[in-house]
């Protein structure tokens, strides 16, 4: 009996591309792969552990943006194919209340930094001009490191996309003027690492009114168009023309139940004074599903934050703290080495300058000695000539004296000869006197030249002794530059643990409180810097290019209100204002 041949089933695979703001990942998945499998595969690839903030966004076959469902198969969710591959974007779906306390991993901080930066530059999130300049300086610090005039040349930042186009159009300022203002704050961030600069960026960005808000167009029964904002703290209601200031807000701890029926969305609160549910309508059923998904996720994170940290989060925070301390030690070590190297270079430059100065002094001393030697040789030559002239005059005087003696011997012959001899003798005596006087003058001049020669030789001897002393002194000044040995970095012993003790929790709480106080002080300093920049560029503002959000922001600044004071003010208002846009409908069966 022949057994029929059965073809072995093969699991075909399909390509998937996942884009982040700084990379692109490619995978090949089986047909039965679920959204959770793909999401966990991506998180393992990039080393992400804080996965609860993120999700995968895609464009469906109808052109609508949707979030990938974790429990369904990837191919069952109508993902639009691009060049034969399923395209996804890895984005932050939920946002923290406080980035400094909640974001633990550096990769998490980096992903939030890239997404918020792109949202601000694309003007999806409104940012005032002065805050835009400050955020741009932190972005440059995160990308290029410490400010260096040799590297950061004029015009380098002009080609970078650092400011929203709306801010550039509002002021009569050239790109060079914007670059100078960014560089001014960029130079103040010296010593910040990339993760510190990105965290400072997020700290400032989280205070923006539109940070972490997902807006949806809704209407009430009167068909009044408003905005619904889903945030990490609750639900906000905005006027159609104003996305900055909420009309009313519902925090998650006030909401009892959320449901929808087709296009109708119902929110029940625990307000005893006004127990009526809030009802609004969206444009499509798909929007209601997306709103409910975001509400559930944000509510879960809201409740999770108010509970003690899980073991995983405690371990992540402890590891992040140890890693931060290790990097701080390495950074301090590199800073010390850099300072020692700079000090050695400065000392070397000073020594080289001193060596050049000593060489110049030695050259001047050699020239002075050479001139002294030439002067001594000249005086010696003059003295020799004077001695020769004196000897010649002495020989002539001797000859004249011999002639006088001979004439005296012959003077006795005759009277005439005597008179002649007397006349000749007188003349010879006069000549002898003149010649003796001449000889005496020559002798005095010779003595004078001899004295000058003696003084010149003495000066020459002193100059030689001075040169010898100078050379002996310079030979003792040796230049010795030895590299300073950096101290050994302290060793850090890694301890494994299972649970954090109560003392560790108290110490962690104290450290968090200390960082909060430091952050408040630094935040006050940043606000003062923003106020100075705002007053500086106010004169260059172009009024016709101002958008309604700029006017609203200016009014908030004039009243001294912030994002948090507005929310507090709205929350403390009358509860009747919360349903000012809605009318009561007959309750229908809700679908949770």
Helix-strand blueprint:
Elements: E1 13-19, E2 24-30, H1 35-46, E3 54-59, E4 65-67, E5 81-82, E6 85-92, H2 99-102, H3 106-121, H4 129-144, H5 165-169, H6 175-188, H7 194-205, E7 214-219, E8 225-230, E9 234-239, E10 246-251, E11 255-261, E12 264-269, E13 278-282, H8 285-305, H9 311-410, H10 415-476, H11 502-537, H12 548-559, H13 563-571
Parallel strand pairs: 1-6
Antiparallel strand pairs: 1-2, 3-4, 3-6, 5-6, 7-8, 7-13, 8-9, 9-10, 11-12, 12-13
Helix pairs in contact: 3-7, 4-6, 4-7, 4-11, 9-10
Binding site for a 1,2-diacyl-sn-glycero-3-phospho-(1D-myo-inositol): 69-72, 289
Domain FERM: 14-306
Membrane topology: Peripheral membrane protein
3D structure, described in words:
Keywords: Actin-binding, Cell junction, Cell membrane, Cell projection, Coiled coil, Cytoplasm, Cytoskeleton, Membrane. This is Moesin/ezrin/radixin homolog 1. It is a peripheral membrane protein. Among the domains are: 11-90, Ubiquitin-like (UB roll) (Roll); 104-204, Acyl-CoA Binding Protein; 211-306, Pleckstrin-homology domain (PH domain)/Phosphotyrosine-binding domain (PTB) (PH-domain like, Roll); 344-408 and 418-469. The model is unreliable at 1-10, 477-502 and 583-592 (pLDDT under 50). β9 and β10 form a beta hairpin. It is 54% helix and 13% strand. It is rod-shaped and about 175 Å long. It is α+β, with helices and mostly antiparallel strands and 592 residues long. α9 runs antiparallel to α10.
């Amino acid at each position: 009996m022949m057994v029929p041949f059965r073809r072995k089933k093969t699991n075909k695979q399909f390509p998937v591309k996942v884009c982040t703001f700084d990379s692109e990942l490619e995978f090949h998945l089986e047909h039965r792969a679920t959204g959770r499998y793909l999401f966990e595969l991506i998180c393992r690839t990039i080393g992400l552990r804080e996965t609860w903030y993120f999700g995968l966004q895609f464009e469906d076959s109808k052109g609508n943006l949707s979030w990938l469902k974790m429990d369904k198969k990837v191919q069952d969710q109508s993902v639009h194919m691009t060049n034969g591959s399923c395209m996804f974007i890895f984005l932050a779906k939920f946002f923290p209340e406080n980035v400094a306390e909640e974001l633990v991993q550096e990769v998490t901080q980096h992903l939030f930094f890239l997404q918020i930066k792109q949202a601000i530059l694309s003007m999806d999130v409104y940012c005032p001009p002065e805050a835009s300049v400050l955020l741009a300086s932190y972005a440059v610090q995160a990308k290029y490191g410490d400010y260096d005039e040799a590297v950061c040349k004029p015009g380098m930042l002009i080609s970078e996309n650092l400011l929203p186009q709306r801010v550039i159009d509002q002021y009569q300022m050239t790109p060079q003027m914007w670059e100078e203002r960014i560089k001014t704050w960029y130079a103040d961030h010296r010593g910040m690492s990339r993760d510190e600069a990105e965290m400072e960026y997020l700290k400032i960005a989280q205070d923006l009114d539109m940070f972490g808000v997902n807006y949806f167009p809704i209407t009430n029964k009167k068909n009044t168009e408003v905005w619904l904002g889903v945030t990490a703290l609750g639900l906000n209601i905005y006027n159609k023309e104003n996305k900055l200031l909420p009309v009313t807000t519902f925090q998650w701890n006030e909401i009892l139940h959320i449901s929808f029926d087709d296009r109708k969305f119902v929110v029940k609160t625990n307000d005893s004074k006004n127990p009526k549910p809030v009802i609004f309508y969206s444009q499509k059923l798909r929007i209601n599903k997306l709103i409910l998904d975001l509400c559930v996720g944000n509510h879960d994170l809201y409740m999770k934050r108010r509970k003690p940290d899980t073991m995983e989060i405690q371990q992540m925070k402890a590891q992040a703290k140890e890693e931060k301390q290790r990097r701080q030690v390495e950074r301090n070590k590199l800073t010390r080495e850099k300072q020692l190297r700079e000090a050695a270079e400065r000392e070397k430059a000073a020594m080289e300058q001193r060596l050049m100065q000593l060489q110049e002094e030695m050259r001047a001393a050699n020239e002075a000695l050479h001139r002294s030697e030439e002067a001594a040789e000249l005086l010696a030559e003059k003295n020799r000539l004077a001695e020769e002239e004196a000897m010649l005059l002495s020989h002539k005087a001797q000859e004249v004296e011999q002639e006088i003696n001979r004439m005296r011997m012959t003077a006795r012959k005759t009277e005439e000869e005597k008179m002649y001899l007397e006349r000749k003798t007188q003349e010879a005596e006069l000549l002898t006197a003149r010649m003796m006087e001449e000889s005496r003058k020559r002798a005095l001049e010779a003595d004078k030249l001899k004295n000058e020669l003696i003084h010149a030789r003495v000066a020459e001897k002193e100059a030689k002794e001075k040169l010898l002393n100078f050379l002996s002194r310079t030979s003792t000044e040796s230049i010795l530059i030895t590299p300073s040995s950096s101290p050994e970095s302290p060793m850090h012993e890694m301890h494994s643990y299972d649970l954090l003790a109560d003392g560790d929790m108290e110490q962690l709480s104290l450290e968090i409180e200390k960082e909060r106080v430091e952050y408040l002080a630094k935040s006050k300093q940043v606000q003062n810097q923003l106020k100075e920049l705002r007053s500086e560029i106010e004169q260059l503002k172009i009024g016709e290019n101002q958008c309604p959000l700029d006017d609203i922001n200016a009014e908030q600044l004039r009243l001294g209100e912030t994002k948090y004071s507005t929310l507090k003010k709205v929350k403390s208002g009358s509860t009747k204002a919360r349903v000012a846009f809605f009318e009561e409908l007959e309750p229908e069966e809700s679908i949770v």
